[in-house]
Fold each of these.
Amino acid sequence: MNPVQLDRVVGTMIAQAAGDALGSQYESGPTLPDEVTPRFGVGVFGHGVGEWTDDTSMAIPILQILAQGRTLEDEAALDEIVVTWRDWSRDAKDVGAQTRGILSRLASPTARDAAALAARTHEASGRSAGNGSLMRTAPVALGYLHRSPAELAAAAGRVAQLTHWEQDNVDACALWCLAIRHAIDTGELDIYAALDMYDPAARARWLPLIDEALAVASHPRDFAAENGWVVRAFQGALSAVAHARSLPDALFRAVRGGNDTDTVAAIAGALAGAVFGASEVPSEWKGMLHGWPGIDADELARLAMRAVGA
């Protein structure tokens, strides 16, 4: 990989963390006008200035596994991710309701049991498409950067269904990871390319949703009312990145969208980082980022590089 591509690899994780931390103090709040420039502050749930929330924290165990050169086909690796999530969730400042419901009810902290419980939870209610799977999916794109698109899509779906069973989660995570992969390779945003590997029914489902997000006048505010749903979070984040002039602009747009601001900005940050690169993240932002013991922006960069084998 050349230095520009590696900058995009690092940008994927650092911009995700930055978007997450930036959106923290605006969570559950109203949409903001374009004249307002979001600032880092103390989060709604008590996260400190520059501290990322559960969105990036749940990505960390996935990133660590991939940085070790392991794969997500390895059941033992998935088990370690679930154990780490469960232990982290016990005293985390905030955990998504759907995720907490799965992790707190596990009879044994294994991937097999987590996925089975997620499936039963979905069957009981008929829905399980919260945005908690999409917020943590970016590391999968890095660890599978040199694998086939089908392998990447399958791995993204496998991790999504550890807590979020519904097919919308599987599709959204796969599409997002494939878009990150394409952006790292080319520096371009092209979400449509990922649809080529889907069957006609899935393309018919997602094509109008993507068109809506990429419409010339679209803004994350358009999707704020339901952006706790993975589909609207996907659309809001995509709109933020597609119409941004710079990486900070993408994160500002995501936060101005309102409601689940940290999650939408974290999702947008991962893709924006893959498009623009870590060099476009302001240095003062990098210096304040934290949220997991022993991990700051420098360590995020190191783990990201190791995940792609660099």
Note: The CA atoms of residues 106 and 164 lie 14 Å apart.
Amino acid sequence: MSVQIKRIYEETKESDGERVLVDRVWPRGVSKEKAALDDWDKDVAPSSELRKWFQHDPEKFQRFAQAYKQELQSNQNSSEAFEALVEKAASHTVTLLYAAKDETYNHAVLLKDWIEQRLHEK
């Protein structure tokens, strides 16, 4: 069991396991064939409003993290989608794919941490 994150623009590898796009918007310049997705889970992505507010500003990251977690917890669809990701990660490798340029301050980093935290609670 493991959860990995990587930019969707990186090369696909066998070690990726199940590849899940966790962005609400399809990434520019990536064909569906090149993406080689197993799933596109829009429900676990931040809302468009939150994403636009954040704009990958490191100074806003802590507030973004709190608001994003609140969105996941309060929205029935995202809660179910989040739990489905936890279940997948419990049995095999899951790679969360995102398009953001910033590899440190993005929602996939948070999502990975939250999934791993849930796995350790089980």
Note: The beta strands are 2-7, 18-21, 39-40, 93-98.
Amino acid sequence: MTLRRILLVALGGTVGTAARLGLGLALPDAGGLPVAVLVANVLGALLIGVLAARIPASTDLRLLLGTGVLGGFTTYSAFMTGSVELWADAPVLAFAYAAGSLVLGLAAAALGLRIARPRPGAAS
């Protein structure tokens, strides 16, 4: 049981990490601003919100998609590294990027939860 769950996360993480790399290749940094990281984190937060509203935490599917795919797709370490690197040349932009990323990520996760949460009386 535990080995299967580890393999699900590893498989999902491989897919998510490859998707993030593809996004990074498609969306290069704009003036030092790590655009692909911002897009990955905000989109990932939205999708994690949708998963949290729709798929029970204890299921293998949520482990594969949430922890694995979306955990590999989003990246806190690249977000922090990009912010620090940007700070050296443009501290105001770095602050705006970091604060904006956090606000957009929280809003995206809340939106994902809101739009995906089953409505009372609605067919699921």
Note: The chain has five helices and no strands.
